Amino acid sequence: QLNVESMVVAPDRMTQRVVSRELAACGYRVSSEKSALRALELISRTRPDFVIVSAVLDELSGIDVASALTAMPSTRNIPIALLTSYTWGHPSLHDLPTRVAIIRKGNSFGSDLAEFLGRFGVT
Q1: Cross-sheet strand order for the sheet of 5-9
Q2: Which of 6, 19, 45, 116 is 20 to 30 A removed from 34 (C-alpha atoms)?
Q3: Is the whole model's pTM more than 0.85, yes or no?
């Protein structure tokens, strides 16, 4: 197991389980949270090595969470990826900060995850 901590923020246990299983298979330690507000608190306190946040959440959207994390000095350097079915250029992603990666659900998940981890040098 690697000494790398990840946080998965997703509204349902199934999504958390699928993403967490992939990350654990790569050797990453994984914690998960379903509440956007609680995730913001946990991430700012624990500062994981990277965060994967679902686009659709409860109180806030994944774009809101990613925007908040990239704006705060204490978390702005944490690599973040948005888990979504949309691709770059989709109008729903207009407000997503440009440094936030996209991991698409479905067949592209594995390659998008690998690209994200490589882009930010997470090993």
Answers
A1: 29-33, 5-9, 50-54, 80-84, 101-104
A2: 116
A3: yes
